[in-house]
Amino acid sequence: MRILVDGxxxxxxxxxxxxxxxxxxxxxxxxxxxxxxxxxxxxVCYVESGFQNVDMVIANETKPGDLVVTQDFGVAAMxxxxxxxxxxxxxxxxxxGNIDGLLLERHISQKLRKAGKKTTNAKKRTTQDDERLYSxxxxxxxxxx
Length: 145
Description:
Elements: E1 2-6, H1 13-22, E2 26-32, E3 43-47, H2 53-61, E4 67-69, H3 73-81, E5 85-87, E6 93-94, H4 99-114, H5 127-144
């Protein structure tokens, strides 16, 4: 198992690295060239800037059994299809049982925004989000091994 991180918008990097170190897992952070990410533990891979470039690289690089950290439901759906694990930075574990509903919710929200309607904004990150992320990572890693 490797941990692949969608680094363009991924808070909680320290908690992800802590879990990776604890289980001696390779961790790769993918981000576009407009970001500067440093890490003493993880490998940082820069991808050419462009719409969904990082998402497509992650989807293509993911192997069965990998663990992907992403906020993007589309990326999560693609990696689940490759028999990998996926979790969002707030600790929600994506599964075959919840991904279709999340994709539908995203689709409906996009249609509402295009029609000029307002949708709810993401809530600020909390310490509970950090704790949930770490717990979810440990759960996935231990159950996979």
